[in-house]
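Predict the 3D structure for this chain.
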Amino acid sequence: MKTLLSGLVRIVAVAAVALWCVAAGYIAVSVPDLPTEALSQTFSPAESSPFSKDDLVRAAVVGKQYTFNAHDKQALYDQIAAMNARAAAEGDQSAVADAGFPDVDAMERAFAEADERYVLTPDAMSHLDDVWPVAVAGYVAFGASTVLALAGLVFCGATGGRRRVGGVLVGAGVVVLVAFAALGAWAVVDFDGLFAAFHSLFFAAGTWTFSWDSLLITMYPPEFWVGMGAIWLVTTCLAAILSIGIGAILRRKAPAS
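Done. Predicted structure below.
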């Protein structure tokens, strides 16, 4: 019974450390604004949008904050309204003129009737709202995996010593590298297929596809997501390599005294 419990704890610990490595990559792309800002600055297609590059970059950052962080609809709508006001002042007749919207509901009603190149339509906002619980689940997974990994490693250290802890760390790192190598190969061969498969896990078909010139897509073009995937991949692989390195050190036999 004791051996069975020890084996189960090791399996849980390996899974928790592996999940932590994956979640660390998620945290790297979802919490700080810098990746979103840099990738949007690089890839947002201002030439196919009625808005300037600076406006698209700012909208991408505020949209990321709405979807993954503060979930502040007022801030997102204020940004879109400000962009449209600038475009209208420059003579764009299709922009939503800022008539001093009294509240979010008034902006929402105005945006519902506007061209999708200028606003986040109800469908686009619905998709961002669908992402929000998935984003929260990612943060929960990071916290839970941290607690489980630490508890499992402490248990393994107490019952089997440093070599057992090292074995868990090496095993987790190898699992992550093998899995992400497969995903990376899939991304290289067919990124669109991987992107679609990932979305199909969480969202209903048809709820996450939009016109190429819609505001949502010009804020977050396909190249943006390739860059985000690369940051996630690199961060997770570095965490896995670190896990393997530390594990290998712990697995070495202590020198004879």
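The mean pLDDT is 92.
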